[in-house]
Design goal:
The chain is α/β, with parallel strands linked by helices. 52% of the residues lie in helices and 13% in strands. It folds into two domains: 119 residues, 3-Layer(aba) Sandwich (Rossmann fold), CATH 3.40.50.11890; 142 residues, no CATH class. It contains 13 helices and seven strands. The strands form two sheets. The protein has a four-stranded parallel beta sheet, with helices on both faces. The protein has a three-stranded parallel beta sheet with strand order 6-5-7. The longest helix is centred in the middle third of the chain and has 27 residues.
Length: 274
C-alpha cells in the first residue's frame, strides 16, 4: 500500500477504503530517537525558532521520509501554521491534500469535505462505510482500555495516552493493532496496581515531552483522562461517518470541547487538571 502522511486526525476510513496506508506524522516525529534534531533541521531550512515545534517536526519527518510523498493537511481545526507547512512541502515536491473542519460544525460543509477527500483518493462511499464498521470494532477495544483506566488501577496514564493517540492511524495496520489491544486487555489482570491516589486529567494537545506521565506518577498522581487523545478514538457511537466527525470535539471551539471535559471531570472523579 502507498503511504500518506496526516498532520492530525482526519476521516481515516477514507484513506483505508482507497487502499492507502495512513501515517500520523506527529507520532513518527515524537517517537524519533532525537525529536529535537528534527526541529533544528527545519529551522536550518528557514522555519522561525518561535514557530510551533510540531509543525517543524512534521516538516522534517516528511522531507526525510523515502515513502511519504503525499500529505493530508488539516487547514481548519488544527494548527494555524499548517498553511505554511503545505507551501514548504510543495516546494520540496510533496503533494498536499487539504481537509477542513468547519468552525461552526456545519454538517453540510463537513459532508462536502469528506466527499472531496473521497474524490481525491478515489474511495467509494460503500467501501468507506465498511471500513467505518471495521475500525469501530477496533476503537471499542481502546474504549475498554480507557474505561479500565479510570475504573481500575492497572492502566497507566501513558498507556492510556498511547493507545488512544494511536487511533489516528491505527499504526498503519488495524488488524495487528486490534490483536495487540486484545492481548493488552487480556494481560491486565497480571499487572500490579498503580499506587497514585491523586486523579488527574490532561487537557489539550498531547504532550511533546515524553516523560510527563511517568513523572506525575512518581509524585503520587495518575492521569485517568486524556482529553484530546480520547477524541482520537471517536468515543461516541454513531453509524454515520459525517456525524462521527461532527461529534469529535478537537477541531471545534472551546465551548463544544468544554461540554465533554466537564462531563468527564465529574464521571471520572478528577482531583485536578493539567
Amino acid at each position: 500500500m502507498n503511504k500518506v502522511g496526516l498532520t492530525t486526525t482526519i476521516p481515516v476510513e477514507v484513506i483505508y477504503a482507497a487502499g492507502w496506508t495512513p501515517v500520523d506524522l506527529n507520532n513518527i516525529f515524537i517517537t524519533h530517537n532525537n525529536p529535537q534534531s528534527l526541529v533544528e533541521e527545519a529551522e536550518l531550512a528557514g522555519y522561525p525558532r518561535n514557530l510551533c515545534a510540531w509543525i517543524k517536526g512534521i516538516y522534517t519527518t516528511v522531507i526525510n521520509s523515502e515513502d511519504i510523498r503525499r500529505v493530508v493537511a488539516v487547514t481548519q481545526g488544527d494548527c494555524s501554521n499548517t498553511h505554511a507547512l503545505m507551501e514548504t512541502l510543495h516546494m520540496r515536491g510533496v503533494e498536499t491534500v487539504p481537509f477542513a473542519f468547519p468552525f461552526d460544525r456545519d454538517r453540510d460543509m463537513l459532508k462536502l469535505q469528506v466527499e472531496k477527500l473521497m474524490a481525491a483518493f478515489g474511495a467509494a462511499r460503500p467501501e468507506v462505510d465498511r471500513w467505518k464498521e471495521r475500525l469501530d470494532r477496533v476503537r471499542r477495544l481502546v474504549h475498554k482500555i480507557d474505561e479500565l483506566t479510570w475504573q481500575g488501577e492497572q492502566v497507566s496514564g501513558f498507556e492510556n495516552h498511547l493507545w488512544q493517540v494511536s487511533c489516528s492511524d491505527f499504526n498503519g495496520d488495524p488488524e495487528k493493532f486490534a490483536w495487540e489491544a486484545e492481548a493488552y486487555l487480556a494481560g491486565l489482570d497480571k499487572k500490579a496496581c498503580i499506587d497514585a491516589p491523586v486523579r488527574l486529567g490532561y487537557i489539550g494537545v498531547p504532550p511533546i515531552m515524553t516523560d510527563l506521565y511517568h513523572y506525575v506518577e512518581s509524585r503520587g498522581a495518575r492521569v485517568v483522562f486524556n482529553e484530546i487523545q480520547r477524541q482520537f478514538s471517536m468515543p461516541y457511537e454513531t453509524k454515520d461517518i459525517v456525524e462521527q466527525y461532527l461529534l469529535y470535539t478537537y477541531p471545534y471551539d472551546i465551548f463544544w470541547r468544554l461540554q465533554d471535559v466537564i462531563k468527564e471531570v465529574e464521571r471520572r472523579r478528577l482531583d485536578g487538571l493539567i
